[in-house]
TrEMBL record, chain A:
Its main location: cytoplasm. It is found in: Cytoplasm; Nucleus, Nucleolus. GO terms for cellular component: cytoplasmic exosome (RNase complex); nuclear exosome (RNase complex); nucleolus. This is Uncharacterized protein. Residues 35-164, 168-233 form the Exoribonuclease phosphorolytic domain. GO terms for biological process: nuclear mRNA surveillance; poly(A)-dependent snoRNA 3'-end processing; rRNA catabolic process; U4 snRNA 3'-end processing. CDD domains: RNase_PH_RRP41. Belongs to the RNase PH family.
From TrEMBL, chain B:
Residues 79-151 form the RRP4 S1 domain. Residues 1-21 are annotated as: Disordered. One of its GO terms (cellular component) is cytoplasmic exosome (RNase complex). It comes from Chondrus crispus (Carrageen Irish moss). Keywords: Exosome, Nucleus, RNA-binding, rRNA processing. GO terms for biological process: CUT catabolic process; exonucleolytic trimming to generate mature 3'-end of 5.8S rRNA from tricistronic rRNA transcript (SSU-rRNA, 5.8S rRNA, LSU-rRNA); nuclear polyadenylation-dependent rRNA catabolic process; poly(A)-dependent snoRNA 3'-end processing; TRAMP-dependent tRNA surveillance pathway; U4 snRNA 3'-end processing. Residues 173-211 form the K Homology domain. This is Uncharacterized protein. One of its GO terms (molecular function) is RNA binding. Belongs to the RRP4 family. It is found in: Nucleus.
UniProtKB/TrEMBL annotation, chain C:
It is found in: Cytoplasm; Nucleus, Nucleolus. Transmembrane segments: none annotated. Coiled coil: none annotated. Residues 28-164, 194-259 form the Exoribonuclease phosphorolytic domain. GO terms for molecular function: mRNA 3'-UTR AU-rich region binding. PANTHER family: EXOSOME COMPLEX COMPONENT RRP42, EXOSOME COMPLEX EXONUCLEASE RIBOSOMAL RNA PROCESSING PROTEIN. Its main location: cytoplasm. It comes from Chondrus crispus. Keywords: Cytoplasm, Exosome. This is Ribosomal RNA-processing protein 42.
Length: 262, 287, 294
């Protein structure tokens, strides 16, 4: 049954009396400001791709496929000393709560794909795969906010599933700002077009920043550093879940195939 | 009332069994590998500097393997990495200038030089201009070829050869791609299975199943065709269940499917593959 | 890409009635089906055939004005997208032609008089308001028989679609009737059982030989193919043919008869499978779908 997302539509989104943080300090879906939504994920969801992952963060759901490293599609894209990384970000027609037929070539999708390409180019050991190509394809199945975050996390899982060598494990988290409070992992209800939102991708072990996007300026008095702190803490929460999932999946494979030296 | 010609099932629920073998440490890209000697390291590892300390980290998710003083991480799933001496099956993608290029399920296509192929008229005769023009007569686009990895060049390109009578163009059978990490490195890659079907298990995960070895002739009987189909379905079941693929495990699934009375077309049903692979699963090396 | 030798093997097999995976000529690969995977859609279904063809369908409903030529019918719009997840060939505009062809097939399948009652069931106020069902299909993997998989997934999704109950509030003048959507009560589509399935038969190898539910390898060997829409009443709803080879008249007649029979088998087996899903929906029982977890 369709969920009750009608509130914001009928009241015109926020300013008209919608309370994002209750007196108890809880958000609309019952979370605390620093809490990330429930994450469920699965590696190897698609059998044809070299690597893949299915990822849910709250009601946002994405599928990511990795093809490669493989022979480059066109001679023009070959780099003699490293692999070329290409990303595509596509949203399914039934993904948004309000019906919308989007096209994967539109501005938002192309921008998201570029953010991902830059983030992963920095962490994939491209020098290990000269003259080849690594493709990362994102398909958003349901978007309730944080689709890019979900895509980055799913892509990390898919790259691990494909056995692509990386210097670290990229994890993403976003931070919004509602009712004068920073909220980690805002849902679509909590993200409005005029509100600041920070999307951060970090390297989990070295804590370096792979990518940082800030939409709309932060309110006066609030520091960029505070927003980063919230995002980093969220990313650490997420990393714990993903690390556990990778270990569980790998142990299952090991159990199946056995410790045969290949 | 005619019987339905197909089956329709719900997807199997994910297993809720707790993680087995949980005493084995699995790395994740970026995780530190404890080691004494940072200078002796191999595949799957990276030397990185954090502040003033140098640390060995994993680059893939896998199991840490230590051989003598060499530390490496073997990824559990990865694209095929060719090694000299491997037996592979490749599909010709294009040809030009005295060489063919083949898809061997690796990061790049492999090269097969005209000079590395057995030609009619003797093993070591010189390649003539005629041969060059007739390259398509030997192997054309789309052909499946069994070959051996001869060498790896500096730029990472891999060269194949078919200089043994056992290698060459494949016909009279069916092609089955599987995950390369499931094909055991063994002394033999050309097998005649107990049921009579011939199987070439390429190190690169490309498999070819035929009714008979290349050089024999004669028409295929329907019975033989069914056997090849049963082997094909057995191989795919092992691939789905992520169980090592070898003549022993293939025949285990083959026999189990017959014992359980599983029809050929039902062997790949998700609820049936686990059942017929039980025996093969227990053949794996103990942890 | 297929080698000449593989094509020969497939054609010789078809001539003997045994395909590479052991199926008979008209046998279908095992199908996995699950409905109601997308909670934000009015109806959804995922169909996988042989583990290599994978379709996800989501149906979303909106209230719009009916078409001028059919004021007493609702609308159905179909869009198919081949996801890049299925193949790097579909990146960018690579899948554009196939998307258009597949969307067109579904549109034609549902445009005939055989589905008129279904469309009538979507009308609200004749000439002024009706439901439009946006039926969107995502191809997640393409391993042969896309038409069959698409039509099956669309049918399954439609069988479980629920729409909020609409009450007509009569206005003062004839044109002033208004509708009120009751978001608390949901109803299934009337006549969803009229949804057809597409059966493709491909001519492979010798004269008079054809197969159902072909794999991508078999499709590469097919000289010609006929796709027919079949509904529960055994009626044909649209037919498409393709391929450069010709099919002689006797074979064509035989193919059409077999297409109706195979289609009938598919419809019967699918419907008895869906009884569970539909019963659960009507009793309000919520079941967690398996979805993409394994």
């Amino acid at each position: 049954m369709p969920p009750a997302t009608k509130r914001s539509r009928s009241r015109g989104g926020g300013a008209g009396g919608l309370e994002y943080i209750s007196l108890d300090g809880l958000r609309i879906d019952g979370r605390r400001p620093t809490e990330v939504r429930k994450i469920r994920c699965s590696l190897g969801a698609l059998s044809r791709a070299d690597g893949s992952a299915y990822y849910e963060q709250g009601n946002t759901r994405v599928l990511v496929a990795v093809y490669g490293p493989r022979e480059p599609h066109s001679r023009a894209s070959i780099q003699h000393d490293r692999a070329v990384v290409k990303c595509e970000f596509s949203t399914a027609m039934f993904a948004s709560p309000v019906y919308r037929r989007t096209w994967k070539g539109d501005r938002k999708s192309t921008a998201a794909a570029l953010v991902m390409q830059k983030a992963f180019e920095g962490v994939i050991l491209t020098a290990s795969y000269p003259k080849s190509q690594i493709d990362i394809y994102v398909q958003v199945l349901q978007n309730d906010g944080g689709a890019l975050v979900a895509a980055i996390n799913a892509a990390s899982l898919a790259l691990v599933n494909a056995g692509v060598a990386m210097s670290d494990f990229v994890v993403a988290c976003s931070v919004g700002f509602v009712d004068d409070t920073f909220v980690v992992d805002p849902s679509s209800l909590e993200s409005a077009s005029d509100r600041p939102e920070l999307t951060l991708a970090v390297l989990s072990h070295s804590a370096k920043i792979a990518s940082c996007q800030l939409d709309s300026k932060l309110p006066d008095g609030e520091s960029f550093e505070r927003a980063l702190e919230f995002a980093t803490s969220g990313a650490n929460q997420i990393f714990k879940v993903l690390e556990y999932e990778v270990r569980k999946y790998s142990l299952n494979l090991l159990d199946s195939r056995g410790l045969v030296a290949l | 009332m005619s019987t339905p010609t197909f089956s329709i099932v719900r997807p199997p629920p994910p297993s809720t069994a707790s993680a087995p073998l949980s005493h084995i440490p699995i790395t994740i890209p970026g995780s530190t590998i404890p080691t004494e000697d940072l200078s002796v390291r191999a595949r799957g590892t990276l030397l990185s500097t954090t502040g003033s300390t140098r640390v060995l980290t994993a680059t893939v998710a896998g199991v840490i393997t230590r051989v003598n003083k060499l530390v490496m991480v073997r990824p559990l799933r990865a694209k095929y990495i060719p090694e000299t001496g491997d037996v592979v099956i490749g599909r010709v993608t294009d040809l030009a200038g005295r060489r063919w290029r083949l898809d061997v399920n690796a990061a790049r296509h492999a090269i097969l030089l005209l000079s590395a192929v057995n030609l009619p008229g003797g093993i070591q005769r010189r390649r003539t201009y005629q041969d060059e023009l007739n390259m398509r007569a030997f192997f054309t686009e789309g052909d499946l070829v069994s070959a051996e990895v001869q060498e790896q060049w500096d730029d990472g390109c891999v060269a194949l050869h078919t200089r043994s009578l056992r290698y060459g163009k494949l016909s009279g059978g069916t092609f089955v791609p599987v995950q390369p990490e499931l094909v055991k490195r063994a002394k033999k890659h050309f097998h005649r299975l107990d049921c009579g079907v011939h199987a070439i298990l390429g190190n690169n995960g490309y498999i070819f199943l035929a009714e008979r070895a290349e050089k024999e002739g004669g028409a295929t009987t329907p019975e033989m065709r069914k056997m090849v189909a049963r082997v094909r379905n057995a191989v795919l079941a092992l691939d789905t269940e992520f169980i090592a693929i070898g003549p022993d495990t293939i025949m285990s699934v083959y026999d189990a499917s017959i014992e359980e009375g599983v029809e050929l077309r039902d062997m790949t049903r998700p609820d049936i593959t686990a059942k017929i692979c039980e025996g093969a699963r227990s053949m794996r090396a103990a942890a | 890409m297929l080698s000449g030798a593989e094509k020969t093997y497939i054609e010789a097999g078809a001539a003997q009635g045994i395909r590479a995976d052991g199926r008979g000529l008209l046998d279908l690969r095992p199908v996995t089906l699950e409905t109601s995977l997308l909670p934000t859609a009015s109806g959804s279904a995922r169909v996988r055939i042989g583990g290599v063809t994978d379709i996800l369908v989501g149906v979303k409903a909106e209230v719009v004005e009916p078409h001028v030529n059919a004021p007493d019918e609702g609308l159905m719009s179909f869009a198919v997208e081949c996801s890049s997840l299925a193949s790097p060939d579909f990146v960018g505009r690579g899948g554009a032609d196939l998307n258009a062809e597949l969307s067109q097939l579904l549109t034609r399948l549902y445009a005939s008089s055989a589905t008129r009652e279904l469309r009538r069931g979507l009308a609200l106020i004749p000439g002024r308001k009706c439901w439009v069902l946006h039926v969107d299909a995502l191809v997640l993997d393409s391993g042969g028989n896309l038409y069959g998989a698409l039509s099956l997934a669309v049918r399954a999704a439609l069988r479980v679609v629920t729409l909020p109950r609409v009450v007509i509030i009569p206005g003062e003048a004839d044109d002033d009737d208004e509708i009120e959507v009751n978001e608390e009560v949901f109803e299934r589509l009337s006549r969803s059982e009229d949804a057809p399935v597409a059966v493709t038969l491909s001519a492979v190898g010798g004269r008079g030989i054809y197969i159902a539910d072909s794999t991508s390898e078999e499709e590469a060997c097919a000289k010609a193919a006929i796709t027919m829409g079949v509904n529960l009443a055994g009626r044909a709803c649209g037919a498409v043919s393709g391929g450069t080879g010709g099919v002689d008249m006797d074979t064509l007649k035989s193919m059409l008869k077999d297409a109706v029979r195979v289609g009938g088998d598919i419809l019967k087996t699918t419907d008895s499978f869906l009884q569970d899903d539909i019963a659960r929906m009507e009793s309000g029982e919520e079941v967690e779908p398996v979805g993409f977890f394994s």
